[in-house]
Amino acid sequence: MSFKDFLWHSDRMGMRRRNLILLLVLNLLSTLFEGLGLAMLLPIAQLMTSGGDAVSLIATSRLWQWLAAGYATVGLQVSFGTLLITCFVLMLVRQSFVYARAVLTASIQHTVVRNVRNEGLLHFYNANIGYIDRTSPGRVVNNLTTELGSAVGCIMSGVAIANYSFHALAYGTILFVLSPAMTLSVCAVAVSGLFMVHGLLRRSEMTGREITAANQAMSSYLVEHLKTVRLVKLSGMESAELDGLRRLTARQRDSMVGLARLTALAESLTEPAAIGMGLALLFAGYAVFGMGLPELGLFLVILLRLIPIIKTGILTWQSFVANLASLRTIVQMFDQMTAEAEAPGGGVEFAGLRQGIALRNVTFQYSEGAAVPALNDIGVEIPAARMTGLVGPSGSGKSTLVDILPRLREPQAGKVLFDGRSVAEFSRASLRRGISYAPQSPQIFDVTAAQHIRYGKADATDAEVERAARLAGAHEIIGRLPHGYGTPLGEGGTILSGGQRQRLDLARALVRQAPILILDEPTSNLDADAEDDFRKALRRIRDETATTIIIIGHRLSTIREADQIVVLQDGKVTDVGTHNELLARPGWYAEAHRKQHSDPAPAGQVAAATS
Fold first, then answer.
1. What is the CATH number of domain 353-434+516-525+552-599+606-611?
2. Domain 3-339 class?
3. pTM
4. What CATH fold (topology level) applies to the domain 439-513?
5. How many C-beta neighbours within 10 Å does residue 244 have?
6. pLDDT means over runs of 10, the chain (611 residues)
7. Cα 91 from chain centroid (whole Å)
């Protein structure tokens, strides 16, 4: 990855340039003062070997002349004590910069993780429903947890590499002053060493990509299969599921062990090579270049300080390339979610329906080139403050139609009008505030009954919560719970029956008092008594409110009291009327009603399709 690409990826992760620059400045200052502190060891060693004769050193050495002039400006003389104090102060200042760098690094790292997680979930919510349908929740969870940590680690590794480069440059400068020939020898050996580890770095990058893929596969598998424990148990598939998990964990293990092996190999190669280089240069400095003891001693001290920096720098570089896949994965995820964001709404606030909803020649297909559109040139009127039922065989387009109303999906052709105004003119937030939705399978969180009803309207009063529960026929159910409205429901509402969950979720939809209520097959999981109670609740809602109710009917008995019933087949509206009107003429509705209210049809007949 080039430096330009690194900066671009850092920007996409929310890493501010000024923070990067500040980190680099702190690294540079800490390196500068460390180098100056180590450089002070040379005059200290020279003073010790000269028997404390500073006068002769000043007379013969330009370095000592600079030191004498510098100390004179602050009214001090060069002595063993002042040199030691200066060395200590320089190292102390260096440590203050190291402390500031460590605190800033931790702050930046955790701030970026927090911001990316927050922005990631926001982008996911703002993505269109097609992207969400195609995206595995496990992959998103993995990206915002495991991969995000590795991605931020990749960026910080890049900053650390710059820090090690500063150290190498500072120490190299001191070494060059001591012996240009020796320094050039060190550089030649170091470059040769980089070529040696280049292959390891490439293999580390490939292994990093494999680790990312293995992590995503594992997270997707766990999220998907932990939601189906009941099915696994009742199907006796525990062994098969464990076999699948073992394959994924083996893939993760092999990838991680492979990276650990490469890291150990890099460490095993660099340390002996660095030590061997140091010993060889020590011999060359003494036997070939004729360096004096103070210079040779300082050269050795700096070289010993430089060796672990080179080693750590190589390992950090390896970590950087191994985590590149995570960084690219996070950035690609943001790019995809941004590219597939929902279409922006208009500036008009949706305040409710007075006339109704009209669909004019609406066509929608889930993918280009689909053989049959999900909705094909649909035209239908949904009057305000009335109950409209949607029925038809499975795949006829009922759920797609109701998804289009709150703009979860955008039709490729046609118009959707609310009181004669295009739905695109309304702000998306106000439009969805005006629509309450109760799905076929209630999605109940691990909260109390009151908290679940308040979901979507957190400021609802206790009286509003109770009124919604009474309308939905859930008040008596809640009253029988151990702590009433304060009873925790458990994840998915495990303490409730299917019908009880359905009515509790209907109360959640009602408490918002939205002008439009959409119910997607609300009685599909109810027994006869529960369905009868639910119909009574719907009747109360219609009679006591001005709500526009749109209900997808699984059982025709649920929608028989609707003001109008729309029949869809193969993405088209094939009939519209009341229950009695549709029964009076031949068609899908009359046939489906006959099958649902008579003995099972003989073998060979097409069963009534429901959804």
1. 3.40.50.300
2. mainly alpha
3. 0.76
4. Rossmann fold (3.40.50)
5. 13
6. 74 82 89 85 83 82 85 86 91 93 90 90 90 89 90 89 82 76 73 73 86 88 80 79 88 89 80 73 70 70 76 86 91 92 88 93 84 89 94 90 92 94 92 90 88 91 92 88 92 84 88 91 72 79 87 85 93 94 92 75 38 37
7. 42
